[in-house]
Write a structure and sequence with these properties.
Layout (H helix, E strand, L loop, with lengths): L3 H6 L2 H11 L7 H8 L4 H21 L10 H6 L3 H13 L4 E5 L5 H8 L3 E6 L2 H11 L4 E4 L2 H8 L5 E5 L4 E2 L2 E2 L10 H7 L6 E5 L13 E7 L2 E9 L8 E5 L3 E4 L15 E5 L1 H6 L2 H7 L3 E2 L7 E3 L8 E11 L2 H10 L2 E8 L6 H8 L5 E10 L2 E11 L2
Parallel strand pairs: 1-2, 1-4, 2-3, 4-7, 8-10, 16-17
Antiparallel strand pairs: 5-6, 7-9, 8-9, 10-11, 12-14, 12-15, 13-14, 15-18, 17-18
Length: about 400
């Protein structure tokens, strides 16, 4: 059974409806729905508007390619960004494989990247509707099978030059989940792919606990344009067993030294470093701090501070302009005195929502500023900073 959108939009009328929907300024508006229903059957109009809404949301991940693909809501959420999918493909090429079995292909973004890298692909998804979307996106360049990855894997894997890629679904009836117990296909199956008997890559959420990573597996936390988007587990030829890596695309790669000495804790210096999320997740704070001649403000908070600037791609660097004990009243008074109308609020180690706090401050004025709200061993801090280098 195919997804209705796939059937409806594959016709000439569907293509025309997609073009008409793309011309609407707001595809979610009543005006857009009214305009399309005047020209197309209601189901075609609704499908076209839904897809155009997904495409616009997908541009941040996929760029212009998004305008040529079909989506499901869950598939859009889980799809790899274009640069990340290309990185996955590059790793398989470097490992010398010829075919990749994409287990849990979703809407087919990784499969497309693998194909574009010159690899053969067999894609699998358990959901018939999602598989139909993937097949529409891939076209006749690869086959998309509908079925259970656990059941199909033995017949698809094992031949020389064949590798596995898995992106387990992370959704339950309650919504998105980061618990390995909720993965589909299950964690027990994921572990069978990572024994080292074949080239295998598994894409997971970046919050995966280190203790869950199987022995002999390389774990690579990936950041793209400032966002930490995944941890990929790699096994087999081409991987680096028991290695933890922070990768800031396109090519800043920090291999974590597990023997790095713990950092000291001290007062605020003249420089503040905000390590990239991938570095923090990979456990590279101590190593980065040593390279920067920096120390921690608090033993449990990933801010580094120093008295001398050392450029690094692995952290955002700030000059510390002012240091105050933090209370909301202190921040409000400080902002009013300086006529701050635009305030960037960064925080770690404090239970607050910057967006909610910003509204409560009722900012007025023409000046702008950046503050960091955090804590040291003595209590909450308000740091007024100036961004010097983005990591």
């Amino acid at each position: 059974m195919t997804r209705p959108e796939t059937h409806l939009l594959s016709t000439p009328a569907g293509a025309e409806a997609l073009a008409a929907a793309a011309a609407q300024p707001d595809p979610d508006s009543l005006a857009a729905a009214t305009a399309l229903r005047a020209r197309f059957p209601p189901d075609v109009a609704a499908a076209a508007l839904t897809q155009v809404g997904f495409r616009r949301a997908a541009r941040t991940k996929l760029g212009d390619r998004a305008d040529r693909l079909l989506f499901t809501r869950a598939g859009l959420e889980q799809a790899s960004r274009a640069a990340v999918a290309a990185h996955h493909a590059d790793r398989f090429v470097a490992a010398g494989v010829r075919r990749v079995v994409d287990l849990g292909c979703g809407i087919g973004v990784d499969a497309l990247a693998l194909l574009e890298a010159g690899l053969e692909v067999i894609a699998v998804d358990t959901d018939p509707e999602t598989a139909a979307i993937a097949q529409a996106n891939i076209g006749d360049r690869a086959e998309v099978l509908v079925g259970d990855a656990v059941e199909l894997a033995p017949s698809l894997l094992g031949a020389p030059g064949v590798a596995a890629f898995a992106d387990p679904a992370r959704r339950t009836s309650r919504g998105r989940s980061w618990r390995i117990e909720d993965l589909s296909p299950p964690w027990s199956f994921v572990e069978t792919l990572l024994t080292g008997s074949l080239v295998a890559g598994v894409k997971l959420g970046p919050g995966l606990p280190h203790r869950a990573i199987p022995a002999g597996v390389e774990a690579e936390w990936v950041s793209d344009r400032g966002d930490t988007v995944e941890v990929a587990l790699w096994a087999g030829p081409g991987s680096h067993p028991d290695t933890r890596v922070a990768l800031l695309l396109p090519d800043d790669r920090l291999v974590v030294d597990p023997g790095a000495a713990a950092l000291s804790v001290g007062p605020v210096g003249s420089v503040l470093y905000e390590p990239a999320g991938a570095v923090t997740r990979a456990g590279g704070i101590a190593q980065l701090g040593a390279a920067l001649d920096a120390w921690l403000l608090h033993p449990d908070i990933a801010y580094l501070t120093a008295d001398r600037i050392r450029p690094t791609p692995y952290a955002t660097t700030f000059e510390v302009l002012e240091v105050h004990p933090y209370t909301e009243r202190t921040l409000r008074h400080w902002a009013r005195e300086r006529g701050i109308g635009t305030l960037e609020i960064k925080k770690r180690g404090l239970d607050l929502d910057p967006a909610v706090l910003r509204k409560r401050l009722k900012l007025r004025g023409g000046a702008s500023a950046t503050v960091v709200l955090t804590r040291d061993s003595a209590g909450a801090l308000l740091l007024v900073v100036r961004r010097l280098h983005a990591g």
